[in-house]
């Protein structure tokens, strides 16, 4: 009996250790604490040295976006969260970009510049705060699993609000780019005309394993705990976030951008996404010297030139 108690005690101890490790991995990777309105009101840029040369520009974009008239919008997600966005109108009747931000970012920080980039190519912009981000509800970031469904809900809302004749484009940066690529593999309404994906990852599993390795830890050991934590405490499986599988079903025009010096999401991921993409209308632009999410800042002229050319070639005005 003593041996049995020892075995049972050891088994319980191991189980508790596994659950605790999974919980810690979940909190570090997927959990989003309540957002402080005072922090959201600050002029924030992404952390890291790569963004310092663009601090003034990014701050100016945020300031300009806050001062530009916009319409507050919100929807209810399929699982009961209130999701929020802001609509900016350059001119009534123009196509509308529905824009999605990056991991642990928000629309104010990541998409203020994208509003004016959209204006520059003759589009209005609806910028979204993902679940668990910015002013939207929620505390779990799912790397595109549930965000894809939210994207589909925003499409439905835009058609209902703006009318059946609206022309929509899905655009995103980083996790937002992965999200719109995942949506591109779905059967979308005819109002959706194309996709822009800036520095997307090929799959959640790949990018999470890459970050684990960057931390000097064995991905083969820790990723199973990350996945278990997501399933137990977040209610989703990160292995379901696979943009590279979704683009194999895509038919819409898709333009990919990626900085060649991206230290977070390797540009090679966009190359593989481009190669896997089934759309007959696709283009990949890589930008020399650009780190994660700053391809537009590094080379605005060529970014807009290539985007305008893609729009003209594919009748996307």
Q: Mind describing the biggest β-sheet? A: 8 strands, mixed
Q: How does the helix and strand content classify structurally? A: alpha/beta
Number of helices: 12
Strand content: 15-25%
Total beta-strand segments: 8
Head-to-tail CA distance between termini: 78 Å
- Order of helices and strands, N to C? HHHEEEHEHEHEHHHEHEHH
Roughly how much helix do the residues carry, as a percent range? 40-55%
Largest sheet, spatial ordering of strands: 1-2-4-3-5-6-7-8
Protein model, in words:
The chain is α/β, with parallel strands linked by helices and 317 residues long. It is built from 12 helices and 8 strands. The protein has helices at 2-29, 37-40, 55-67, 107-120, 145-162, 175-184, 204-214, 219-234, 243-246, 267-276, 295-298, 300-313, and strands at residues 71-76, 82-88, 96-100, 124-128, 168-173, 192-198, 254-259, 282-287. The chain has an 8-stranded mixed β-sheet, sandwiched between helices. Strand 3 (96-100), helix 4 and strand 4 form a beta-alpha-beta unit. It is globular. It starts with a helix and ends with a helix.
